[in-house]
Structure formats: structure tokens, C-alpha cells
Design a protein that fits this description.
two-stranded antiparallel sheet, elongated, alpha+beta, single chain, 4-stranded mixed β-sheet, 111 residues
Length: 111
């Protein structure tokens, strides 16, 4: 779902997450999306080395705490990310989970 937002000088469109858990996900109310877009100033909120991404197009709504882990559709748990950083964060989470599993298995096997 794409949400256009032109108030407060922001000319952005934001896409709600689409993924395998969508059937579990509740629709994010427009007033919540508006607050997130205003807070994040209509641009990607990803930061690294004290610098924030400047992308204002191809934006996605991202759950900070995933829905599958009990994350809610609240302003505090939502942020805007560009497609590149959204993909990066999800891949990083998968890598972190895989590394944790490898460490656990090595400990169990005494390696």
C-alpha cells in the first residue's frame, strides 16, 4: 500500500511493508502513518557514522520491533526507510540470527 503525503512541504510516498507475515499484520491507521512521516520529515531515517540518509523517494514503513516478535503499529515502533536501507536491515537481521545459531551450536559441540 502506498501512502502519499504532501502536507508540511513533504512530497513523499511511503509504502507499508509487504511480506510473508502480512496476513498477521493489521493495517496501519493513516493518522499513525502521518505522525511517523512528520517525525521522520518525509525521508529515510537510517543513520550511520552520525549521518542520516537523504533519500525521500521509494520509502517504506519499517517496524523497529518486528510484528512476529510482538511489535505494534505505533508511532514509537515505526520508522521510514528507503528501499535500500530497509532491505539492508532485514538482511542484517537474518545474518545476525544465523551467526547466533552458529555460535550456539559451536558452544553445544564444544568447538
Amino acid at each position: 500500500m502506498i501512502i502519499s503525503f504532501t502536507q508540511a512541504g513533504y512530497n513523499s510516498s511511503v509504502t507499508q511493508d509487504a511480506g510473508p507475515t502480512d496476513n498477521e499484520r493489521k493495517h496501519i491507521p493513516q493518522h499513525i502513518l502521518n505522525q511517523v512521516i512528520l517525525r521522520d520529515k518525509g525521508r529515510c531515517s537510517f543513520q550511520k557514522h552520525g549521518r542520516r540518509c537523504s533519500h525521500r523517494r521509494h520509502l517504506d514503513i519499517h517496524h523497529i520491533k518486528p510484528v512476529k516478535d510482538g511489535g505494534q503499529n505505533t508511532v514509537e515502533n515505526l520508522t521510514i526507510l528507503c528501499e535500500v536501507h530497509h532491505t539492508y536491515l532485514h538482511h542484517r537481521e537474518e545474518i545476525d540470527r544465523s551467526l547466533a545459531l552458529i555460535r550456539k551450536l559451536r558452544l553445544e559441540q564444544g568447538i
